[in-house]
Amino acid sequence: MTNGKGRDIKPASGKLGVLLPGMGAVATTFVAGVEAARQGIAKPIGSLTQMGTIRLGKRTDDRSPLVKDFVPLAKLEDIEFGGWDVYPDSAYEAAKKAGVLDASHLEPLRGFLEGVKPWPAVFDPQYVKKLNGPNVKKGKSKRDLAEQVSDDIARFKKERNLDRMVMVWCGSTEVYRQAGEVHSSLAAFEKGLDESHPDILPSMIYAYCAIKEGIPYNNGAPNLSGDFPAMVELAKKTGTPISGKDFKTGQTFMKTLLAPGFKARLLGMNGWYSTNILGNRDGEVLDDPESFKSKEVSKLGVLEQILQPQLYPDLYGKIHHVVRINYYPPRGDNKEGWDNIDIFGWMGYPMQIKVDFLCRDSILAAPIVLDLAIFSDLASRCGMSGIQEWLSFYFKSPQTAPGLYPEHDVFIQLMKLKNTLRHLRGEELITHLGLEYYD
């Protein structure tokens, strides 16, 4: 559909299957929240696709429709859920164990959630050392495991009579890996699958299976996953949207809110100390130093890109940026992110800011999963393939084209996202440069 100026967009007709590798706290909170919204039990708070508006034209035009009324998005009623996990618990059992949602919310959804059961997962404890569940695929090679995942996807599509699918990685953080020779090209990666190369991690197998079938892939963890040349090559070949990585939820979200303000006022910074305590499965996994390394790299990159010390050496050239994550079981999913920020102002006088964000990790992540699923489906229907930088708004460590630094400022990210939507519909982009005169 088009208004004559915008991009041709295929209609969002039929059912949309949302594939979820990792059906723990985040995924089950997402699934429960969508079903609660469908039943009128709760509102999808935090979701731009469901509750956000978009300004069109001049401020005097008074045109601010809901995003979902402006672009043709999949409806909540048309979403079907499928996924994999190392534990065989249904979505109801997994949500109950995660402890994110109260019984008053879970029990009305019990019948539906019990029907969402994970398929055996591709998993190896050497890549996530703190987990070891029984619901795991067996195969003679990583190619064999990939074919099993593809079979799951094909069966799900047929059984649910799906028109389209998307995949959102909601699994645990894997051990840190940098791209190597096996990741350098599609041919090298597929050879690595045949040879069960040790640097092909489970998340990469899921990414490969999705992108190969033209299913948009979104990576919610700091894993390398789809962020390497072979997957970008495959995405271009199959015309598939990809985005990542690492959902921007609690502490990093606060950094991308606050740091742009310090930079805008040219306030200097000596240091930013961050510590987190959480007790969910994510906290347990990150208690392993190798998995923490993946998360640490994702978290540490934000300030440097926002503050640009190479351009402002007097203000940000000597920042001490420290990130800690501590596993503390009594806290459960209710993560606490504590920050101490040492800034300085006029004539170098020091000041301090302290932030204590008592957040709910999965409550913040669930609407991100929903928006990524719906927006990446939109991108697919628009013929947008490869890296979707306009979805950087949702990630700690946005995936970008080679040679481009990621944009971390949340306000710039949101402007880019909404301008992309305006572009798709042939509306004028908003730059805030025009002068508006009034009689």
Structural commentary:
The chain is an alpha/beta fold. The chain folds into two domains: 16-247 and 363-424, NAD(P)-binding Rossmann-like Domain (Rossmann fold, 3-Layer(aba) Sandwich), CATH 3.40.50.720; 251-358, Dihydrodipicolinate Reductase, domain 2 (2-Layer Sandwich). The chain is built from 16 helices and eleven strands. It has helices at residues 25-38, 48-51, 67-70, 91-98, 103-106, 110-114, 142-159, 186-194, 202-212, 229-238, 251-264, 281-285, 289-307, 313-316, 361-381, 410-424, and strands at residues 16-21, 79-85, 119-120, 164-169, 217-219, 241-244, 268-278, 320-327, 336-344, 350-358, 386-387. Helix 10 (229-238) links the parallel strand 5 and strand 6. Helix 8 (186-194) crosses helix 10.
Question: Biggest sheet: strands, sense, closure?
Answer: 7 strands, parallel
Helix content: 25-40%
CATH architectural category of the largest domain: 3-Layer(aba) Sandwich
Number of domains: 2
Oligomer: single chain
The 3D shape can be described as globular
Helix-strand makeup class: alpha/beta
Strand neighbour order, sheet with most strands: 3-2-1-4-5-6-11
Q: Determine the N-to-C terminus distance.
A: 38 Å
Mean pLDDT: 93
H and E string: EHHHEHHHEHEHHEHEHEHHHEEEHEH
Could you tell me the radius of gyration in angstroms? Answer: 22 Å
CATH superfamily of the largest domain: NAD(P)-binding Rossmann-like Domain
State the helix count. 16
